[in-house]
Amino acid sequence: MGTLxxxxxxxxxxxxxxxxxxxxxxxxxTTETQAxxxxxxxxxxxxxxxxxxxxxxxxxxxxxQDKTHDCIKCDYYKALKSEFGSALSAIQFNKYLNKPNxxxxxxxxxxxxxxxSARQTMIAAKANYNK
Length: 131
Ligand code: SF4
Description:
Blueprint: H1 6-10, H2 21-24, H3 28-31, H4 64-71, H5 75-84, H6 90-97, H7 116-129
The structure holds iron/sulfur cluster.
Iron/sulfur cluster binds near residues 27, 30 and 55.
């Protein structure tokens, strides 16, 4: 899965400074810093299924419960599930939110890959799950 987070996989542009933040603002999955490091992701980039009010599919989603039927059909969710199995669950996510001493992503880290090679790496990682 490398360094992929949901906004990379979905190319949604709804992360801070992203091209689509003027539509609804910044997606709550990118600002949930308590989730930083969950499944080696940034913010809730690997726990977006458990964050209420995300902007997936270009619409403001409801509670984590309301979103479940959409998230389980999501190709990103399926890729995470195939890689992390039972570590990807609402229980584990909520446990992680309350965990002390978490790895915090450096503030100046880019939200999306800058270099062509890094973008290609992400596309390849994604393709790997769509075989
Ligand atoms: S949860 Fe938010 S940041 Fe993640 S892909 Fe969906 S819209 Fe983008």
